Amino acid sequence: xxxxxxxxxxxxxxIAALSLVACSSTITGxxxxxxxxxxxxxxxxxxxxxxxxxxxxxxxxxxxxxPSLFTLMLTDDGKVSVRAxxxxxxxxxxxxxxxxxxxxxxxxxxxxxxxxxxxQFLTLLGGENVVTTSGGGLQLSxxxxxxxxxx
Length: 151
Prior knowledge:
Blueprint: H1 4-23, E1 49-56, E2 61-63, E3 70-74, E4 79-84, E5 87-96, E6 99-102, E7 106-107, H2 117-125, E8 127-134, E9 137-142, E10 145-150
Antiparallel strand pairs: 1-2, 1-3, 1-10, 3-4, 4-5, 5-6, 5-7, 6-8, 8-9, 9-10
């Protein structure tokens, strides 16, 4: 019969192995979406945009308690960097008219204290959004919902 110490070691090894499997996933690099001239949109690039609120497709409003946990930065060279609470994501974007298309993003997948808001943010951010800017604010809208940012 196994000793208690043996069982503790076996359980510890099993938990460690399961943790590694749970945290592993196929990692892909940032998307290489070719960029269009940023001048066609009035989005300020190379600055950090802080998420202020999310409006879901059903019209429900979620105000972000700590906007520094949810950020977006678009660079002049067509790259996007995102903070979604404890996770980070990056990829590429392109502009066409008043539409901003963010390609697939590589993302960490840690469980954050704000779950599921972090994943909702990343889901709404990805794909094509109509851009509206006013008074130093940025709004990204699609049939999936609306993201409202400030600086």
